[in-house]
Amino acid sequence: ELEVNRLQQEGTSIVGAGVETTKSTLTLATFYILKNPKVLQRLRKELKQVFPDPNKPPELSELEQLPFLTAIIRESLRLSNGVAQRLPRVSRTPIQYSTYTIPPGFPISMSAYVQHRDERIFPSSKTFNPDRWIDPTQERHLSRYLVSFSKGTRMCLGVNLAWAEMYIGLATVFRRVELELFETESDAVDMAREYFVPLPKRGTKGVRVLVK
């Protein structure tokens, strides 16, 4: 358990799962917030209600009650995917799915990328639209299909930490700092390659901003 190779693998897993995924979601969120002036305006208006003094941030529990900030995070998770690669699961017993019997030991997997862009569930799926999450009934329905952290007993262990990072990070940045996109288009955040996590096309310089 303490062999160098095993520790290297564990370290890589922690960095990849705990840093890269949240970073890409925050990057994508920042791009689309700045790309859509109405979204930016609504977010800042909402933040000022619980964050009137930029130097006195509110508690996480207060940020979690903000519907538009929460909707932005959910929509960013949907488009950033978390993990792009299929995550197989293996059952030791037979599974009956509709008319199909899945035998024990047979790997089952799905694609978050494909599910998050299913037009039957998320109309205009390629469009960044936080409003699809605003209605509580619709939000509960859509959340069933949001699998950025996977689902069930083997879902991401860091889900609560990731949500906290996104709430605090986005709220703090957009309450305290005036930003403007600089020579950045959607190809800086759109998935073009899959290396376990989604990556944009080669050659992109990433999301670049000007601090006003």
Helix and strand arrangement:
Blueprint lengths: L3 H32 L1 H14 L9 H4 L3 H14 L8 E2 L4 E3 L2 E3 L4 E2 L3 H5 L19 H8 L15 H18 L2 E3 L11 E3 L1 E3 L9 E3 L1
Antiparallel strand pairs: 1-4, 2-3, 5-8, 6-7
Walkthrough of the structure:
By secondary structure, this protein is mostly helical. Helix content is 45%, strand content 10%. The protein has seven helices and eight strands, in the order ααααββββαααββββ. The chain has helices at residues 4-35, 37-50, 60-63, 67-80, 112-116, 136-143, 159-176; strands at 89-90, 95-97, 100-102, 107-108, 179-181, 193-195, 197-199, 209-211. Strands 1-4 form a two-stranded antiparallel sheet. A two-stranded antiparallel ribbon has the order 2-3. β6 and β7 (197-199) form a beta hairpin.
Sheet/helix structural class:
mainly alpha
**Uncertain spans:** none
Give the count of helical stretches.
7
Q: Give the integer mean of the pLDDT values.
A: 92
Distance between the termini: 50 Å
- Element-by-element helix/strand order: HHHHEEEEHHHEEEE
Walk across the major sheet and give the strand order. 1-4
Main sheet characteristics: 2 strands, antiparallel
Give the percentage of residues in beta strands. Answer: 5-15%
